[in-house]
Amino acid sequence: MIAEAAPSSSPVASEADLALELNPWVAAETRFNQAAKALKLDEGMQKVLRTPTRELTVYIPVVLDDGRIEVFTGYRVQHSIARGPAKGGIRFAKDVSLDEVRALAAWMTWKCAVVNIPYGGGKGGVICEPDILSPSELERITRRYTAELIDFIGPELDIPAPDMNTNEQTMAWIMDTYSMHKRHATTAVVTGKPLAIGGSRGRTEATGRGCLIVTREAMKRLDMDPATARIVIQGFGNVGGMAAKLMKREGYKIVSIIEWDAAVYNKNGLDIEGLMKHRKDTGSIAGFAEAEDMDLNEALYQECEVLVPAAKENVITSQNAHKLRTRVLCEGANGPTTAAADPVLRDQNVFVIPDILANAGGVTVSYFEWVQDRQGYFWNENEVNNRLQEIMVSSFQDVVSYGQSKKVDNRTAAYMLALERVAHAIKLRGLYA
Predict the structure, then answer these.
(1) Do domains 51-189 and 205-358 have the same CATH topology?
(2) What class, spelled out in words, does domain 51-189 have in CATH?
(3) How much of the chain exceeds pLDDT 70, in percent?
(4) Which residue is catalytic, options 123, 245, 248, 253?
């Protein structure tokens, strides 16, 4: 029998209010303001923390395969370099905007500070439609974009990484372009590269593994039994799929997987490897022989001990947060919960592992890749995983302990801890004039 869903009633919000709530940059600002107020940061420091160090807009002329010339627009925002070089991904999408890149760069600053790695936050993007561009066109866009940024990126300045619609091949093109300009191989200019040119073992699994580690720590703290706890994961891509695979290997019971087109359920636990093969063969998780299909509109609200939203932003809002029936919320995706939903989750006593902690495994192993490239010595996968566990466990404990000492929820604690660390670095360095 499929788990019963929660009632469908929800609070009423105007269309304008809901649109504002779903703006992730408004959510980021709201949480920043809450943390800054709780820390009693003076207005001047708040201005410094809000303001990016540098914003670049570049124009990228490219000859397309049919001989036409098109000019694409690209951005790179370096939000903070107070604690180290900027770090953050590059996305290719038709709806990339400077506001979006600016906000994502700020999130990277807080994420790196939460796990206490020596980076600031950066982010980049190019306005294009990757689905209609050939590999050679994407390569030309990437190389020219890199050339336009050549004086602003580098191992000590700003280290890009993959993001939406970019991958290890994109990083290889950036690394090669940068290296050709510098006249020597510079592997540490990007992370998320292929192993053959300086990538790190364990990088592909890192974000999902980080989710596993912090979920394990939450279960310990709440005295929950991983063998009997029901886990629901939304998203079956690199983050959700890898988290499911690793959790299953460790003996966790994944009772449901939710994708964009279908949801499946097995009360005794899903065969994750089998489900992955089924999706590869059929193109969907629907119709898996060893599970029941669920109503996609209700799957998120089934009763469970751990819910892992690892698909997209704005999944949990003020309109549906009251319908969740989970004890732990581990945010594998960026921004899956709106700021307006936070008070609802607090009222329901949901133990939230916020995104800037829960999905920080990826940037942590990117840091390891950068360290390995710079020293010219590479670790085996066991060492990478052990070091990741050490940082994720320590960061989880820091956030929870901080929250308890300040009497705030985990999300507010994570933001407060991040802002405090960055502000402290700025105060120690002083303002150069």
Answers:
(1) yes
(2) alpha beta
(3) 97
(4) 123
